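ok so i was messing around last nite and threw this chain in just to see what happens. nothing serious, just curious
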Amino acid sequence: MWALAQHEDPLTASCNRVALLLAVNTPFYPLYLWFILGRAGWPWLLLSATSLPFFAATPWIARRSGLAGRVWLCACASLNTAWVTWLLGARAGVALFFLPCLVLSVLAFRAAEPLPRMLLTALPFALYLGLGWAPAAPFNYSAAAYAGLLKLNTFSVAALSVVLPYLLGGARGEE
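result:
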């Protein structure tokens, strides 16, 4: 599978690995939701996996343009975070994933690529603020369910925030 991530540009190859890591883990998130929410999670938990083909498309896009692939990945990560934040509700803590989106948007671009870096670093902020105008989540869960979701998402954000610099730092010459 990692062969799909290969690219002549080491930074793009690293971003492809991030995209494939996210794609491979995406189907597990609905399972975690099922364990926490039970039947109350249907059908919303399945909709949380709609980002899988978008993450999986990153290496294909990157073959045509490394920069486009990196832009695509950062945009998909931020848009997915906004989507699932709305889907599960703010109390689920999914908005915390905007933090690794910011890390990704900074590390995925070189100093010679300031425009995409600035725009894609601004995107999580804009989406977070825009969620204030979004309609209410389609379902309201119990306080215990939201506490479980917050724990799951906080741990996941911490793990992803540590993994991203490891995956992308080497490609940036920051071993």
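not much to say yet. Residues 2-169 form one domain.
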